[in-house]
Specification:
Elements: H1 16-33, E1 37-41, H2 47-53, E2 58-63, H3 66-75, E3 81-85, E4 98-104, H4 113-123, E5 124-135, H5 137-144, H6 159-167, E6 172-178, E7 211-217, H7 236-362, H8 368-404, H9 406-413
Parallel strand pairs: 1-2, 1-4, 2-3, 4-5
Antiparallel strand pairs: 5-7, 6-7
Helix pairs in contact: 1-2, 7-8, 7-9
């Protein structure tokens, strides 16, 4: 099943007014197709090709879309109608084999549309004609409004450009303006064949026209009649009433959708307000956390400064301890030197006294008178020796006190001070 995309029309799947708009072009072409070899370039679903085949000698209908050709073959099986998949810019036909080429709403889809016109000129017989249509770029752009450009169109034409480009390939070009107009019919109830039509004279305005149709040829063409197409289904008022009813239904649907959208919006607003409250609470919590972090950073900075102060104080204490230990070591060295000197003096004294004692013993007999004096000297010297011993014990006590000092022990821990 072919799909209606808005560019390929499928009968029965589109609004009847849109179908009539497309069918009118083919009925306009039927007048030139009688007993001729016709090429329908860009045939789409094939409904127009079937109209041409009713009067033509033969109709060859081509389209580049395989699904369109498949649909057309399945719906319009006519002996003198052939559907083929082919490109409009590379027609697979010999020169001069067609008397009429129709290409409705095709040229604006082609990027290399000049090659298409070149190909059409090649396959047309010397007396052949090209009937080509395209939407008016000025009107079409305005009618699409906010929908923007048609994504299927490569190049759109205004009236002057369309006529000028066609005359680059065909010396004789007759331009027609196609408009979907409002009219009034008086049709007899009993079947009849006579048709009278009146078209009020009016100045054609190309810029305001819906579509342009051109009949192009290599030779002069006779007559440019006004063609009026009244389709079988053409009760415009009735169609408008149906369209209005459809629009009213759409309005009801849109109103319901709007009510639902407003309810959804109200719910969204409630959720939004709830989220705002949560956001404010989280923001306040974050601010409290930031303040706590700042206070913690400040406390850490203070403690870091205090650690630096304690390190500096420890360094000073260590330096002081080293100085005290140095002073104690110097004092101990002096005391040790004095002790050695006193010990040596004591030894010397002892040796001298021993010699004197021996001398006294030898001279005891001779120096009885001097004995008392000698004993007295010996007692004095004994007292002095005891005092010296007392000083030695005091010196040892001081050394022990130095050893017990916490500063000396602290120095020993850090590898400073003498080994006592």
């Amino acid at each position: 099943m072919a799909e209606f995309t808005g560019e390929r029309l499928i009968p029965g799947e589109v609004d009847i007014d849109l179908l009539n708009e497309h069918m009118a072009r083919y009925h306009f072409a039927v007048r030139l197709a009688r007993a001729k070899r016709v090429l329908d370039a860009g045939c789409g679903a094939g409904y127009g090709s079937a109209e041409l085949a009713e009067v033509a000698e033969s109709v060859t209908a081509i389209d580049i879309a395989p699904e369109a050709i498949e649909y057309a073959r399945g719906h319009y099986a006519i002996p003198n109608l052939v559907f083929e998949q082919a490109s409009c810019t590379a027609l697979p036909y010999a020169d001069g084999v067609f008397d009429l080429v129709v290409a409705f709403e095709v040229i604006e889809h082609l990027e290399n549309w000049r090659e298409f016109l070149q190909e059409v000129r090649r396959v047309l017989a010397p007396a052949g004609q090209l009937m080509v249509s395209t939407p008016n770029r000025l009107y079409y752009t305005e009618s699409r409004g906010t929908r923007g450009a048609n994504p299927f169109h490569v190049h759109e034409f205004d009236f002057d450009e369309f006529a000028r480009e066609l005359r680059q390939f065909f010396p004789y070009v007759s331009m027609f303006l196609e408009n979907h107009i409002e009219g009034v019919t008086f049709q007899p109830h009993e079947p009849g064949h006579t048709v009278e039509a009146r078209v009020d004279a009016a100045e054609p305005v190309p810029d305001e026209s819906h579509f342009f149709i051109a009949v192009c040829a290599h030779r002069p063409q006779i007559g440019n009649p006004t063609f009026l197409y009244v389709p079988r289904v053409a009760n415009v008022l009735r169609e408008r009433e149906r369209h209005i009813a459809k629009l009213e239904g759409e309005l009801v649907t849109k109103d319901e959708w709007l009510d639902k959208a407003q309810a959804d919006l109200a719910e969204f607003d409630r959720q939004h307000q709830k989220l705002l409250v949560m956001f404010r609470e989280q923001k306040e919590e974050l601010e409290r956390s930031n303040r706590w972090a700042e206070e913690l950073n400040a406390a850490l900075a203070d403690r870091g400064a205090r650690v630096e102060e304690l390190q500096e104080e420890l360094a000073r204490d260590q330096e002081n301890a080293r100085k005290v230990v140095g002073a104690y070591n110097a004092k101990i060295a002096v005391l040790e030197q004095e002790g050695r000197e006193k010990a040596q003096w004591a030894l010397d004294t002892e040796a001298r006294l021993t010699a004197e004692i021996r001398q006294i013993a030898d001279e005891l007999a001779k120096a009885a008178a001097a004995l008392e004096q000698t004993e007295k000297d010996l007692q004095d010297r004994t007292v002095w020796a005891l005092g010296l011993e007392q000083e030695k014990r005091q010196l040892e006590d001081q050394i022990n006190m130095v050893r017990a000092s916490r500063w000396v022990r602290l120095g020993r821990k850090v590898g400073l001070g003498p080994a006592l």
